[in-house]
Design goal:
By secondary structure, this protein is an alpha+beta fold. It folds into 2 domains: 15-171, 3-Layer(aba) Sandwich (Glutaredoxin), CATH 3.40.30.10; 176-279, Glutaredoxin, CATH 3.40.30.10. The protein has helices at residues 44-59, 83-91, 106-111, 146-156, 188-201, 217-223, 265-275, and strands at 15-18, 23-25, 33-39, 65-71, 99-101, 115-116, 118-123, 128-132, 171-172, 177-181, 209-213, 230-233, 236-237, 252-253, 259-260. Helix 5 crosses helix 7 (265-275). The longest helix has 16 residues, at 44-59. The protein is elongated, with a radius of gyration of 21 Å. The two termini are 35 Å apart.
């Protein structure tokens, strides 16, 4: 199951490189509050909210608030989110504060992020106090990241956050989907077909699949490769097992109790659907710009 942070959870710590190659650590205890923003350089929502987030970073800097902006998108089809693309934006003076590359997508996965932008406010104790969008409308600059600012004001004043959760709104994070395989197993072609057909059935033809051959025991150990074929999203095995890395063939249990060299199609579809969830796929997601029904409570 994919973990998704909720308000009140401890914020996962991370160390990520900035565009100069320097490591930046999420260290909540070093600041009165920290804002973690998952963002991107090609998403129109992220671009629309970008100036407002930079304004927050500048306005709250003297109140000991750190704003860490994290790019987790797989850059294979999104070169604007590559280290080179990020460096261009920093050189152009577009960023107020650290611009961090989550190349292995581990931070995004740890936070359960689905959108760009997606905002988390973390207090001095390391607890998530706000999660959601910067404000209610990316197309309205006058909103001025009001939800984020209000959450920060509450945290800095030692109050409970009045509006702790809103629905992230934006583009989906572009996950790296990998099929890891070893030539000693005969299932590679069938596994590749199964993965692509399942993505197509889910309506996710836009997802790029990277097929990676694992050739040596050293490579298997480095990747945590438990056998062939392995289906991974964001460097995480969709079917995690407690076995040591090895050049071997995997066996998948099926619902009818039998074993198979490939996972059950329905089970693979369910795990892909969850791992690749977009903001609007999540339960209780609400479009902040959509008027409430006339008979709904105020």
């Amino acid at each position: 199951m994919t973990a998704r942070l909720t308000v009140g959870d401890p914020a996962p710590l991370f160390v990520l490189a900035d565009t100069a190659g320097e490591d930046v650590r999420l260290d909540p205890g070093a600041h009165a509050a920290t804002v973690v923003v998952f963002t991107s350089s090609g998403c129109p929502f992220a671009l629309a909210w970008h100036a407002r987030i930079q304004d927050v970073a500048r306005a709250y800097a003297d109140r000991d608030v750190a704003v860490l902006q994290v790019v987790s998108n797989d850059d294979a089809d999104h070169p604007e989110d590559s280290p080179e693309g990020m460096r261009r934006r920093v050189a152009a003076g577009e960023l107020a504060g650290p611009f961090l590359r989550d190349a292995e997508q581990l931070a995004a996965r740890a936070y359960g992020a689905t959108a760009t932008p997606e905002v988390f406010v973390v207090d001095h104790a390391g607890t998530v106090r706000y999660h959601g969008a910067p404000d209610g409308d990316h197309d309205d600059p006058a909103q001025d990241a009001a939800w984020l600012r209000a959450a920060l004001d509450d945290v800095l004043a030692g109050r409970e956050v009045a509006l702790p959760v809103t629905s992230p709104a934006g583009c989906s994070i572009k996950w790296r989907v990998e099929l890891l395989w070893w030539s000693g197993c005969p299932t590679h072609d069938r596994a590749a077909d199964l993965l692509r057909e399942t993505l197509a059935d889910l309506g996710r033809d836009e997802v790029t699949v990277v097929e990676r051959e694992v050739r040596t025991r050293e490579e298997a150990a480095q990747l945590g490769f438990p056998g062939s074929p392995t289906f991974a999203v964001g460097r995480r095995d969709l079917f995690p097992v407690d076995t040591p890395p090895a050049l071997t063939c995997r066996v998948y249990g099926r619902d009818d109790g039998r074993s198979s060299p490939l996972p059950d199609t329905a089970e693979l579809a369910g795990r892909l659907r969850e791992a690749l969830a977009r903001p609007w796929d999540l339960p209780h997601w609400v479009d902040p710009r959509k008027p409430a029904p006339a008979d709904s409570p105020s």
